[in-house]
Design a protein that fits this description.
By secondary structure, the protein is α/β, with parallel strands linked by helices. It has a single domain, classed as 3-Layer(aba) Sandwich (Rossmann fold), CATH 3.40.50.10210. 41% of the residues lie in helices and 13% in strands. It has a nine-stranded mixed beta sheet, with helices on both faces. Helix 4 packs across helix 15 and helix 10 packs parallel to helix 12. The longest helix is centred in the middle third of the chain and has 20 residues.
Length: 390
């Protein structure tokens, strides 16, 4: 069936009602067929960048103050599910609800093994997480987001843990998710720094992507770093200049894991940037990897976002793009209905987990919505979900 995404028309091969393939159709189809009926393991890499505190840059938290705690709240919810008194309640959003509800609903229902990694947070997560010895990133406008030695260390940690996680898949695949507020802007910076024409193509948690604001921040950062777009410098230096700690960890994990198991990079723009970074790293440092074992998995709301061009970016970086064919338009919760109006769209591995539900349990989008609503029903704290609330 035909789908128009921004200015690009592409074929969407429909394997099930849950999963669509948007780029590199045959490779994506082979990947899906290989792992149909298999249960994955899920690793979520947590990170922070002061870029997320720029007013208006992200809708993952109504205010910059709220966005300081978004990752901690998402990690706590992903691990524990709804609680009466969480240490970090899910922050209020301009509209919608955290995509962690989607990921948690799938992980809980299918009993998917979960690993949390702290790549660089200002505060320790309130739930068990593997600390990789990273640091939060400064705002990318500084042109000096991370120390180069920190980036090198995080790559090494990613390679080590990618191999360890692959050993635990038992012939299945590894989902790599992320939680970084402001991460689509650092993704744009890495894509542009690698010479990919990504301006105007990335996504955001806003219903209308704030392309001009993102591009202005990225241009400032690249100029401060004296980075000539497309120049043949180290990709590690690029991440140090304008990236975030999640990117380099996830790239290392995926490179190492791809050698022995399937990998799904669970996200949209951010994971396309990670894949582009992986290509640059393997080329620069002659790292062994198996790109045919890797896909990017996201949601329909990202893949068909009319204010971005996710499909075009996936074609540019050369990776199969899969998307869960979700719709929350018929939900009894306005917070979930907001997804179909363009809010939030993706995060915390929501798209990848949704695809996993289709592969492992043959779920349809309606079944996933029912699972998410059942999770929302368990909120009984002030500010929790109530049908009819806005």
């Amino acid at each position: 069936m035909g789908i128009v995404n921004s200015q690009l028309s592409t074929v969407n091969y429909q394997l099930t009602n849950m999963i669509g393939i948007y780029t590199k159709i045959e490779q994506g189809q082979r990947w899906l067929e290989r792992y149909r009926g298999r249960k994955p393991i899920f690793a979520c890499v947590l990170g922070f960048t002061d870029t997320g505190l720029i007013p208006g840059i992200s809708a993952a938290g109504a205010t910059p103050h709220d966005r300081q705690f978004t990752c901690l709240a998402d990690a706590e919810f992903l691990y524990n599910g709804p609680q009466n008194r969480p240490q970090y309640p899910l922050p209020p959003l301009q509209a919608g609800a955290s995509p962690v509800l989607i990921s948690r609903a799938v992980i809980e229902a299918l009993d998917i093994p979960l690993y949390l990694f702290n790549a660089g947070l200002p505060l320790a997560p309130p739930v068990p997480a593997i600390d990789l010895g990273g640091t939060p990133a400064k705002c990318l406008t500084s042109g000096n987001a991370l120390e180069l030695e920190t980036v090198k260390h995080l790559l090494e940690q990613g390679l080590i843990w990618g191999a360890k996680l692959a050993d635990r898949t038992n012939g299945s695949y590894l989902i790599l998710g992320e939680c970084v507020v402001g991460g689509t802007t650092t993704a744009l910076a890495v894509l542009m720094g690698l010479g990919i024409a990504a301006a105007g193509k990335v996504n955001s948690s806003h219903p209308q992507c704030n392309h001009a604001q993102k591009l202005a921040a990225v241009t400032t950062g690249l100029n401060m770093a004296q980075w000539e777009i497309g120049e043949k410098k180290s990709p590690l230096e690029l991440v140090a200049a304008v990236g975030d700690p999640m990117q380099i960890v996830t790239a290392g994990m995926a490179i190492a894991a791809s050698r022995t198991c399937g990998v799904m990079l669970a996200g949209g723009t951010q994971m396309l940037a990670v894949y582009a970074l992986m290509k640059a790293l393997t080329r620069q440092y002659a790292l062994v990897w198996c790109p045919e074992t890797i896909t990017v998995g996201t949601t329909r709301w990202v893949a068909q976002d009319p204010t971005g061009d996710t499909v075009g970016l996936a074609l540019d970086v050369g990776v199969p793009l899969l998307a869960a064919q979700l719709s929350f338009a018929g939900s009894r919760y306005p917070q979930l209905q907001a997804y179909d109006r363009g809010y939030v769209k993706e995060g915390v591995g929501a798209g990848g987990c949704s695809i996993a539900s289709g592969l492992a349990a043959n779920w349809h989008p309606t079944q996933l919505l029912q699972a998410v609503e059942a999770l929302a029903d368990r909120f009984d704290t002030p500010g929790g979900f109530s049908p009819g609330d806005s």
